[in-house]
Batch of 2 targets.
Target 1
Amino acid sequence: MRTTARPALSLLAASALLVACTSGASTTAGSTALPSALASSTPAAGGSASAPSSASSSAPPSASSSAPDGTGSGPAAEVLTPVLGAVDDSPAPVTGTDGRVYLAYELYLTNATSTPVTIDSVAVRPAGSADGAPLQEFSGSDLLARSRVIGATPSAAAPTAMTLQGGQVGVVWLDPSVATPGDVPAALDHVVAAGFAQAPNPLVPAAVTETIARTAVSRVPAAVIASPLSGDRWLNGNGCCNAVTAHRGALNPINGRYHLAERFAIDWVQLNADDQIYRGDKTDLASYAYYGAPIHAVADGEVVAVSDSLPDQPPGADPPAGSLQVDQFGGNYVVERFTQNGQDYYAFYAHLKPGSGSAAVTVGQQISAGDQVGALGNSGNSDAPHLHFHVMDGPNPLASNGLPYVFDALTMVGRAASPAAIDAAAGSGAALPLATGGPTGPRTDQMPLWMDVVDLQAAQP
Ligand SMILES: [Zn+2]
């Protein structure tokens, strides 16, 4: 299991455990999949008018991209901002297993001039607040690790700065956190410091600091769900937060905008008694003891899609490049719609064992939390058996907005020692060491974080 995100668009160069697309092959009930999610403010087919994304997508990016307006009655001051900022999907708070309340989202920066600009730092602040430490700030190598310049040509030399050529767009992945739900600001500002090697014109200084891209914070609560798996020592691969994992980096241009359906997706693999992901022949599905594990519905709901036509991949390597169509990346899968607090959510269970989904459920079927929806497999774009699971605001696993969720109960065993340790466990069968002094014990209503090792219990139907 690879943990590092690739710098290219996931749609075009997906990471091994990355589910980038399943739209075309779905048997999505009652909708035409692709046109249904044209904009984050338009609920996907099957969603309600007050779907989570609708509530969380507030002002249009262009309206919030200028400097914050004043509090007086007159028009806002006009501030020249050669770097434009926008947030397409307003963040929704979610509590992680470290107790922090995270706001995970993306900031798009555009160089509105014709000369290169280097982004020196990006800071997140509560809207209207100029005092105190920012909620999150990146500069230097940290900013490089948290950002991607769209259209940048890969080069042998690693970039040393986030530089946007004239007209170029860059993305910064942000996930500020606060101590309690009560500390979540109503809105966020972004303070961007940038410099031009050559001032683009007399109106623009060589160095600028802008406060831009005010975005409201969604008040829609994270979905509270049961675990889709049961058993001890499940490892969270590629989940949120505090890094741009393959899932968070899956920035897919679809239907005229970027979609990040996998923002909170997790690839689940289970450690055996020796803390290995597999034992023996890496290319044999039988070496992965958890292969075929039952996968359970996370909530009462309705099955809206079942796709079950693909074989398992041989484990141990990525599927050959070009061997999968875009709509086959998720392998065999089930999508379930469920409702909480008047909001529709969609649960996506992917890479299922061939035949297991269609044997368990059918489109239109009402199911209960804990019902089996399939078995863990290795179909689609997968190099080792795992369950890819995420929650989104529409039925299309690709053209949706990824939403946060929490498990009603789980038990923390610990955390993997490092991303490299996960790669070694997946790559060579090494035992996975856990970080010393890591968090342990039972939790309620928390989202598993990247690299968590947890004991899980599905609902009892
Ligand atoms: Zn995945």
Note: Residues 34-49+221-456 form a domain with the Glucose Permease (Domain IIA) fold (CATH 2.70.70.10).
Target 2
Amino acid sequence: MPDHRLTPTHWNPRGEAEGVGPRGLPVRVWGGIPGEDGSIKILHVGESSTAAKWRGASEPSAWRREPACDKWSLCGGCPLMHVTAGGQEQARRDIVARAFAAESLPVEIGAFHASPGGESNYRHVVKLGIEFSDAGRLRVGAWGRGDRHIVPIPHCNVAAPVLRKTIASLAHWVLTLEIWPWNPDTGQGTLRAIVLRASKTTGEVLVTLVAGKHTKALSELAEHLHDDVAELAGVWFHLNEEPGNAIFTRDGEGVIGVSPLSGRDHIEERLNGVLYRIGPGDFFQTNPGLAEVLFRRVVERLAPGPDDAVVDLYSGVGGIALQVGSKAGFVVGVEEVEGAVNRAKEASRLNKSNAEFQLGRVADVLPELGKRLARTRPLVTVNPARRGLEPGVVEAIAALSPSRLLYVSCNPRALARDLAHFQTLGFRMDGPVELFDMFPHTPHVEVLAALQGPAGESGGGRPPRRKVIRG
Ligand SMILES: C[S@@+](CC[C@H](N)C(=O)[O-])C[C@H]1O[C@@H](n2cnc3c(N)ncnc32)[C@H](O)[C@@H]1O
């Protein structure tokens, strides 16, 4: 197809520069920059939008630069790598502003907190897939842009160096041991994904091999990895025979089942002096350096005191709850992954914190928790997954009569939707939202918003006494 001209007007949430095409439909330009008049190549004309890629501009945007990765366009994991740091900040501010505008929600976008270690080496979690290429070569790498074909990323410069080393060893041994990709249709092959997590504090690495069956070759792979990577703390196995793209599956009780291939079941991380334990299948923040900044701001804006009760919803391995720790009279985290709750409890004991943790889905746990918190006006923090708060959770939080609510979100659209919902129940924005550059080179950004609860009775009650005393 011949080249076309387009001046994209804005960033879309996928990190493509978007404009309007001749049919009035959006044109999504990979490698484009809003405001830059350029020539584009149409790749695919769909029913609701057209996919294109940037070809050139006579007057390149002041924000344009050469992407620092030869896999940039194939991998697609860093869609803003062709944009300067200043341009990336503006892109994220624009994406957040559009998300709030879509809900007709006035917002003040305040500080933008940069990634402390810069834009390279920040990623402490990497997920890899495995497949045969069209030419029959085995590939271990990232799921590529568009077609999701696997792209080897041995030099991925956003990954922590120790993860690059581990990825190189993994790719070598998967090939040498002839560990073939799992085919869910035929039940042949073995391996379907690999999840690597590194600690910024200790440099240790935890690897989870996700496979459709358990074979001896996986144990051999684990042994070779230990020989190559001194920092390797453990290698774990997770069985996933389900169709679809989800990496982890859960049993009927919601447990992510793992079994050891070698080593320990967790690594340790320390943020702002607080110790965490992270195991296979646990969520933990991608960019620990920036997570320290985020957690500091959460605690500062929450301003807990000894008479306060703090409820941390979607607490993972204790991220926010353990930072609040003994600054509040009572702290409880709620999380649905059992392993994460166990590690949060253990970390609480090791930190000598008073935070306790409750296993369960937020929507199920909140009504009972509300009874324990009756006559108090708790401080509430939420940090849900990308989809935001599930139906009923906004109302359940409102029923706690929180005096203040802090919402940490990795999805501005879900955040704006949920904040609009809170406002219909009498909550009011409390100061600007702050942006945290958790994922440089991507359109993703972590957003912190604060809300005041509706004015009401002061509560007057004391925080509840702790129910669970750990041994
Ligand atoms: C974005 S993470 C936040 C973790 C934590 N705040 C941190 O900073 O490490 C979201 C967490 O919510 C958990 N989760 C997702 N849906 C849930 C639900 N309905 N009820 C309880 N926990 C849930 C996930 O397992 C994950 O640990």
Note: Residues 85-102 form the longest helix (18 residues).
